[in-house]
Amino acid sequence: MSLKTKADALLRMATESGDVPGVIAAATDRNGTIYEGGFGSRALGEPAEMTPDTVVWIASMTKALIGTAAMQLIEQGKLALDMPAGDVVPVLGKVDVLEGFDANGQPRTRAAKRAITLRHLLTHTAGFGYEAWNANVVRYQQAMGLPRIGSCQNAALRLPLLFDPGDRWEYGINIDWVGKIVEAVSGKKLGIYLSENMFGPLGMSDTAFRITPGMRQRLAKIHQRGEDGTFVPTNTEIPQDPEFEMGGAGLYGTVDDYLKFVRMMLNRGRVGSERVLKPKTVELMSHNAMGDRRVTMLHTVDPALSNDVEFFPGMPKGWGLTFMINNEQAPTGRSAGSLAWAGIANTYFWIDLTRGLGGVYATQIRPFADHKALPLFFEFEKTIYQG
């Protein structure tokens, strides 16, 4: 049986059985796309089908693109990994550490023991958290009257650190701050910088913070899975006139577009005659950059938004610039030292530099790490390796 036949059957069955409303998946080697397919509905109850050119919210898959932008500026000598981030965005030099809350529910904070660096931000070791997985972040937001990060209001970034920079790994708003750093150094809005320096060279014409009319015609809806397992289509959308373009999770795009980024990484920074990164930069991005700290489970504080999540439980995982790295071979066939991450609406990617294979997979479902969508991604990945 051919790879296409097997992958098509897997994904089609998942939509026909109701495991997911719709799914798009694609895989590439260094030379080009080796599989792509779309099945099911863009929105349940509507006739539009999921196709490879369907536009989805890629959410935290945005982070790797922002990390790449920062690495381009490092190549140009405009940034350095271990420079204090406050030298570029002064407010980052003044962020305190949250120690707890007093009897009136007001936060108690202290000065940080060391400066936040770009490396800390790119590896999620700066001390920032996320409201989906840290109750103290939610408590602080409520006490200080701050909006949620998805509001794309600058006030949403006024969070304290949960520990001193460099002490440990915690997933958080770090890459939103990297986006602010890219803007400060380049003198350009984040979307414009990306368009000129990444999306243009890579041919990613369907990826943007703002959904164009052409993209909207192909946009899939995000479905909320209820406790009874059924899906309800929602109108959830990132603000289209944001105060800041959210480097941590703001982009919309297609699986085909993101596959071009994956292929660029597989080719050590090159696409055709275009060079987006130097080979040594890709090498640097692909190695653990946070010492002996390890990626830990994300425990949900909002079950409608996310389940508890840990990829390959029990396997030690590091963090590069800006990817999760599995330190051992994964059960899917993914080589040790591969790069990966995901988006909260159940979008996922992997980049296996050893085997020269990568893939992108997208549903539009919440909560994150959905009990049907995530295993389906791993089955798809396994099918690619077996094929």
Order of adjacent strands in the largest pleated sheet: 2-1-15-14-13-12-11
Count of beta strands: 16
Strand content: 15-25%
Give the helices and strands as they follow along the chain.
HEEEHEEHHHHHEEEHEEHEEEEEEH
Q: Output mean pLDDT.
A: 97
Q: What is the SS-derived class?
A: alpha+beta
In one word, what is the shape? globular
List the total number of helices: 10
Helical percent range? Answer: 25-40%
Our measurement of the CA-to-CA distance between the termini, rounded to an integer number of angstroms, reads 9 Å
- Low-pLDDT stretches are none
Largest sheet descriptor: 7 strands, antiparallel
Rg calculated over all Cα atoms: 20 Å
Any overview of this molecule?
With about 375 residues, the chain is α+β, with helices and mostly antiparallel strands. It is about 25% helix and about 15% strand. It has ten helices and 16 strands. The strands form five sheets. A seven-stranded antiparallel β-sheet has the order 2-1-15-14-13-12-11, sandwiched between helices. A three-stranded mixed β-sheet has the order 7-6-16, with no helix packed on it. Strand 9 (about 270) and strand 10 (about 275) form a beta hairpin. The longest helix has 14 residues, at about 5-15. The radius of gyration is 20 Å and the shape is globular. The mean pLDDT is about 95.
